[in-house]
Design goal:
about 190 residues, Rna Polymerase Sigma Factor, Chain: A, 2 domains, about 80% helix, about 0% strand, transcription regulation, RNA_pol_sigma70_r2, RNA_pol_sigma70_r4_t2, transcription
């Protein structure tokens, strides 16, 4: 029997044991592929510490999804998990950097104003607020967007939504309460 075939059989047995809950078998798999997975991730991220962190996260993911593994090329399977996770991490990091640069541009304006309506005056500030508005519950988001970003009156919003003006007022009131509870001023700095 060739060494490669022996290694494949050994690996299959390790995977089966790991799927059955053997931490020892999973540790051996980790040690076997740690360097390889790190290289895959580092090739995408190009940052040593981030690649080390993401490698750890990938092994947690592999452990989580191992019971679903179908024995169709283990190395390919873990490579796909590592690649996808590294790409997601890189995108998230890029968004954070973009948001950080956007908030640095508006930092002085935000510090001088404590009123959320004043924050909506410039285009950059509207972008920042729009990003935060995605966090709002949907039933509040519509009226907040209509009133603050589209600058519609309560009456216009009520007509658009086939609702009473009092309903619009109440939704805006509750949205402001939600914002005060969930947003912090430093989120906008």
């Amino acid at each position: 029997m060739s060494k490669r075939r022996e290694r494949t059989i050994e690996e299959k047995q390790l995977i089966e044991k790991a799927q059955q809950g053997s931490e020892h078998a999973f540790r051996i798999l980790i040690e076997t592929y740690r360097h390889y997975i790190f290289q895959v991730i580092f090739a995408i991220l190009r940052h040593q510490e981030d690649a080390q962190d993401v490698t750890q996260e990938v092994f947690v993911k592999i452990h989580t999804f191992l019971p679903n593994y179908q024995f169709r090329g283990f190395k390919t399977w873990i490579t796909r998990i590592a690649t996808n996770h590294a790409i997601d991490y890189k995108r998230k990091k890029a968004r954070e950097n973009e948001e950080l640069s956007l908030s640095k541009k508006t930092q002085e304006d935000i510090k001088s104003s404590h009123n959320i309506e004043a924050l909506l005056l410039t285009k950059e500030q509207k972008l920042l607020i729009a990003q935060k508005l995605r966090e709002l519950p949907k039933n509040y988001r519509d009226v907040v967007l209509a009133h603050y970003l589209e600058e519609r009156s309560y009456q216009e919003i009520a007509a658009q939504q086939n609702a009473e003006v009092k309903t619009v007022e109440m939704k805006l009131y509750r949205a402001r309460k939600w914002i005060k509870k969930h947003w912090k001023e430093e989120d906008f700095l």
